[in-house]
Fold this protein.
Amino acid sequence: MTMALTNQGLVYLLLVLFSVPLMAADKPLIADIEKTEDRSYLEAIKGRANSGNAVFEYRKYLQISKKGSKQRRQVLLRLAEIELELSEKLLAEDIKSADPNEAEMKQTIASSISLFETALSEYSDESDNDRVLYQLARAYEINARPDQVSNTLMRLISLYPSSAYYIESQFRLAEAYFINRQYSQSYNAYTGVLSRQSEFYDNAQYKRGWSSFKLSKYDAALKDFIALLDSHDFSKEKSLSRIEKELYEDSIRVISLSFAYLQGIDTVKRFFAKRRSASYIKDIYYGLGNHYLKQKRYADTAGSYMAFVQEYKHSSYAPQLALETIEVWQKSRFQGEVLKARDYFSRTFALNSDFWTVNKKEDFPEVIIQLKNNISLLAQYHHSIGQKKNSVAEKKKAVYWYDQYIRSFSNDKATPHLHFLYAELLAELRQEEKAFYAYEAAAYQYAKSKESTESAYAAVMLATVLAGQKNQSLAGKKKWQAAVVSSTLKFSKSYPNDSRLKNILLRLAEIQYEQGRMLEAIEMAEKVIPQSTKEQKIKALLILAHAQFELELYAEAEKSYSNLLTLSGKQHAKYKKIRERVAVSIYKEAELALKSGQSALAVVTFLRLKKAVPESAHIATAEYDAAAELMKNKKWKQALPVLLRFRKMHPGHKLQNDVTTKLAIIYTETQQFTKAAAEYGKIAGFIKGPEKRRVAYYQVAALYQQGGDSVRALNAYQSYIKKYPQPFDIAMETRHKISDLYGAAKNSKAQDLWRKNIIETDRNAGKNRTDRSRYLAAAASVRLADKLYRDFAGLKLKAPFKKNLQRKKIKMKGAVNAFANATKYKVAEVTTEAIYKIGQIYYGFSKDLMQSERPAKLTAEEKEQYDILLEEQAFPFEEKAIEFHNANLNRAKDHVYDDWVIKSVARLGELFPLRYKRTEKLEAVINVP
Amino acid sequence: MCREWSAVLILLLLTACAQQPHKEAEDAAKPVIKLSEDDSIKYNKALSDIKRKRYKQADAVLDKLIASYPDAAGPLANKAVIFSNKMELVKAEQYFLKALEKNDKLAQVRNNLAVVYRKKGEFGRAKEMLEAAIVSNPYYANAYYNLAILYELYLQQPEKALENYQLYLDLTKAGDKQVTKWISMLQRQIKAGRK
């Protein structure tokens, strides 16, 4: 692709051309003539020339002058120069004139050219011909003979490389080439100019750059342009002249173009990798972008701009180019790219970005404004899309930008609104904690508004929801409950007239209750109740009652629950539960009364529960507890009907067994033993543990016995014996009791059977045998012996004497043996009794003998003999009696001194008074004060 | 203790008494507590009632006197007599002991208490109490008599019984035929036993 020099470039070129003093040879030539010898002649010419006839005079002279003379050459050159000057004037006039006199000008310049050529031809070896050639080239130029100009200049260059006109000639030659689009030649010519420093240097470099550019040698072009830029300070834009500014801008443009042809932005990056500080770099990127923009290559444009921004993030131009990028994309209508560009801009130049560590905000007011706009746009865009598409990702982006905005522009008038939106969005995203604090901030950081109110309310509601979440950890729950409390209090303080306040306070009360801050919950609930709706009152009363209940203010709780039910009626969803709460409150009141020692009040309260809440599940327990308390205070008669009612009203209740137990106690205590026995019978049926059951069975029998129901008692004892032959001791006692009961019932036959049973069981007990079983067996045996003793005693010695005597002896022997056997148990009191009774048997036999019926028809003498004989027979038995009673007395020294010993002592006193009848001497009274 | 040694003991006691005639007896008789005239009359009446087995009346008076004269031993001792007569031996013992707390020199009280112990079969304590009574009043013959019976019947120590019967006789100026027979019987019994 070829590229034409721009208008600006041409203008510059012309300016350069005209600005150079090409014909500065005018005065020197004249001066040279003045140095000639023919001063008078010259003076004449000069005078004429000055008078306007000089040309004519010079020409006339030339006609006459001799070739080869110095004067001729001078005149030739002088005339040529006059013609040249005239041509220039004519040319200038032609340019301005509407009717140019081109013919005259051409004639004049042709004349000038001819004169110069003649001078060169006639004086070809003159050392200063470089100057002539220079003027000739100039004339050719006016004559519009570019080829001749070039040829002339080439002659000059080739012939006079050291000429003062060399550089300029090179430059003019280069310019000519350039105009003729001979760029390769112009490049070389410019290179010649650039061989040494001169006033043409910059222009030559500029034009060589262009030449390279025209030759598609972009690298070379870039070198010249960059060198040109580097050699001047273009950074202070305001101080630049128009020309400098244009030169700069044109250079930038060409550089940009060159880069465009050299694979664009990547080349730029590489090119400037080591010269990042150049002030013009930004313009190059920008220029490149603009180049693309003209071609509607938006992506490349944006790419160029962004390349700079990315490469030079801290550059003061970076924000501008980033913004330009946004505009480019807007033009392109690629909304997605617009968004990215906004995003990039807003992130890169966020107020917390690095950019601001090296740049001052006050220097970039527009950037700040744009930042604000873009962040706001981004936030609301993502928010909107997020809601439309229900996209979490978009919403999160919106959250990010809202957050940026709030942080960056806290005092902006839009911030409160955006803060509210931010909070709303966080809530949508279930970032509850952040949402809560955002709501709180939106509510209380800014001036009051509708949104601040809503934020405040939302904060409370959010915290409330969070505090109530089922999956909330304990710590989380506490945290959010605390948040509800604080947020509600703030709401209450800031918006005391808000219609939602009551509900909020209600919730606060609930939270306080849940947190266990019962006093505060009570206070809050009581605060809500006045001037609230029915629904609110119901809720408040519920909290109030619950809190009072928790604080063990049961009377108050009962009242609050009752008030609640009165207000709500049966329509309340938890009507039954609250009724039950009333019941529990009453129950707890009673318990408290118990704790504080108010027994009577406790009982009354327990019993009141039934009247207050007849359907309560706690009635049974309350009545049971009332009965228990009555029993504790031994109020058996009051407790009895309560327990009997319990038994009747609550069949199947788990406490029924306990009630039975209690009834057993009451009946026992009130000496209704047979009823008590019946209860123990029931207890034996349900009581757990074989030992307890055994005891209960025994108790049944014992109580029947105690109640005088000997029939049931006997049945119960005998039943017990069958079931529980063990423990042995108790079984033995039971046998003993059975024996006694039969005795009491005067059923001696049965009694004796059981006595024998006792004896036999003891005998066969083996290791189980105890002192007590031995005692019982001994006692039984002595009682059985008693019967033999009575039989013996009951048999009178009468006719037929011999037979009866024999029978009595047999009975005596049987009784004595029975008592003797009883002594084998070695039970002291049984032994003394047995010994006493053996003594008595012998004594009785002796006495019976003496008192026996005498045979009839005895003479007095025979009767005396008979009595003596009887006495002799009786005496040994009396001796035996003394012997046995004395045996008992002998036990006294061994500390055996029971009733039987005492009786033996008494009997001894009767049988042998001299030895045994002793009576201690006692003081009838103690006669001292 | 053999009889010779007992005799020496008695002799020593009597010698001491000769130097301080009837000191112990005086101590025992000496009213530590003085009743008012009115109470004295009531007290004598109560003692009379006891002798007549009118225990209820006597008991009421004694209770009042015990309340009025908390340091008096007599009313307590006579209340014990009532219990003893009614065979309420535990209470009798308690009151006799209370009486001795007030006045431990009452040999009569110790004598009666010893009989209570004997009736309860506490022969050891009975013996100690009688011996204490003798120490308290060596001239108190009943204590020797009762100690002799205790030894004879319940402790079956005929020699000691014999010794105490003898001491009893020594203090009984009028003599006691029955006891004299017992002594003879015991002497035979001891002799027979030695054989």
In short: The first helix of chain A runs from residue 7 to 19. Confidence is low (pLDDT under 50) at residues 1-38 of chain A. The CA atoms of residues 759 and 889 of chain A lie 28 Å apart. The interface with chain B takes residues 889-890, 892-893, 895-898, 901, 905, 914-916, 918, 920-929 of chain A (CB under 8 Å).
